[in-house]
Amino acid sequence: MGKKNNRNTRSRIVSAAWKLFYEQGYEDTTIDEIVERSGTSKGSFYHYFPGKDALLGTLSTLFDEKYEELTPKLADSMTSFQKLLFLNRELFFMIENTVPLDLLAGMYSSQLVTKGEKHLMDYNRVYYRLLRSITAEGQAKGEFRADIPANEIVRAYALCERALLYDWCLCDGNYSLVQYSAQILSLFLKGFLN
């Protein structure tokens, strides 16, 4: 029970922070506002984060929470291909509409230069576990090619998503991430279908 409460408290802080970053910008958001919005305490905040800058590395946590929210919506009638496209569409819709572009770009650039934890590449994340499950299911049903290991398909999918996000950041978000991704990711995944 203790671990779940700790995770819930941390999750509330992360969620509140990113909502505030979107609403009023990173620079104009204070720790006090994050604590108030999350319904936690300053002690709890500093238990999980040494400061506001540390929250920039938590965007992957927000993404994983979205995947956990979406998992029950994956209908049995959907093919694995459809499930992957659904997850991408929903996550990229959230990103396009609630994540400030400059913070997304900052997160990606920080992952390039960090010598520490590369949270986007943590293969134990909800994101990777869910993708592996869907891909393995697709292979078992004969939807995806079996001559390519499931982990390689997942790595390629994740690479494609990162490329789409990176390009969107480079272009200052001047096109619809959701619409463009639907076209490109669909074409990309077809190479793995039987």
What layout of secondary structure does this protein have?
Layout lengths: L1 H23 L6 H8 L3 H7 L10 H12 L9 H19 L2 H13 L12 H15 L9 H21 L6 H14 L4
Helix pairs in contact: 1-2, 1-4, 4-5, 5-7, 5-9, 7-8, 8-9
Helical proportion, percent range: 55-70%
Beta-strand content = under 5%
Number of helices: 9
The domain tally reads: 2
- Shape annotation: globular
Structural category is mainly alpha
- The CATH class label of the largest domain is Mainly Alpha
Number of strands: 0
Gyration radius (Cα, Å) is 18 Å
**Please, what is the average pLDDT?**
88
Poorly predicted segments: none
So, the CATH homologous superfamily of the largest domain? Answer: Tetracycline Repressor, domain 2
SSE pattern: HHHHHHHHH
Distance between the termini: 44 Å
Would you summarize the structure shown here?
The chain has helices at residues 2-24, 31-38, 42-48, 59-70, 80-98, 101-113, 126-140, 150-170, 177-190. The protein has 194 residues and is an all-alpha fold.
